[in-house]
Amino acid sequence: EVQLVESGGGLVQPGGSLRLSCAASGFTFENYAMRWVRQAPGKGPEWVSSITTRGDSTFYADSVKGRFTISRDNTKNTLYLEMNKLKPEDAAVYYCQAGGTNWRGQGTQVTVSS
Q1: Which residues 6+ apart lie within 8 Å of 59 measured at CB?
Q2: Given its phi and psi angles, is residue 26 left (phi above 0), alpha (psi -120 to 50 degrees) or beta?
Q3: β partners of residue 34
Q4: Are strands 10-12 and 108-112 parallel, antiparallel or unpaired?
Q5: Residue range 82-103: average pLDDT?
Q6: Calpha distance 32→13 (Å, rounded)
Q7: Which among 1, 8, 107, 112 would be 20 to 30 A from 48, CA to CA?
Q8: What confidence tens digit (pLDDT) does each residue in 32-85 have?
Q9: Is residue 26 helix, strand or coil?
Q10: Are strands 34-39 and 18-25 parallel, antiparallel or unpaired?
């Protein structure tokens, strides 16, 4: 059974940082590009960032470029998203997804507020 379990969300002040994790199981993690997607209340899903299978290439939405860093550890079957200089508009539920699939975890809530 495919499982993607996100964690690391929480409440942070504007300008703060969070590190999200996504623990993957039930499939060969190293064979899949991975991405983070977020969804704010009342809005559709927004792609945030992607990473290739070996982690040698990364891609970011303009809205997060320079503030967020995606990475992966294939030995731990885990995807990460380091989020710095957080803004109120970054608040959303963050999901990890395996590329080319509709697999998605339950998400982790990020709230940015003073």
Answers
A1: 49, 50, 51
A2: left
A3: 51, 98
A4: parallel
A5: 96
A6: 33
A7: 1
A8: 999 999 999 999 999 999 999 999 999 999 999 999 999 999 999 999 999 999
A9: coil
A10: unpaired
Q: Could you please report the per-residue DSSP string of 56-89?
A: S-EEE-TTTTTTEEEEEETTTTEEEEEE-S--GG
Take residue 12 and report the two structure tokens written for it: 């942070």
| Distance from C-alpha of 12 to C-alpha of 6, rounded to nearest angstrom | 17
Q: Three-class SS of residue 51?
A: strand
Bridge partners of residue 18, in order along the sequence: 83
> For residue 104, what is the DSSP state?
B
- Computed from CA positions of residues 96, 62, 64, 110, in that sequence, does the dihedral angle turn out positive or negative? negative
**CA 104, CA 21: separation in Å to the nearest integer?**
13
Sign, CA dihedral 57-1-44-91, equals negative
Q: Determine the pLDDT at residue 69.
A: 98
Residue 30 three-state SS: helix
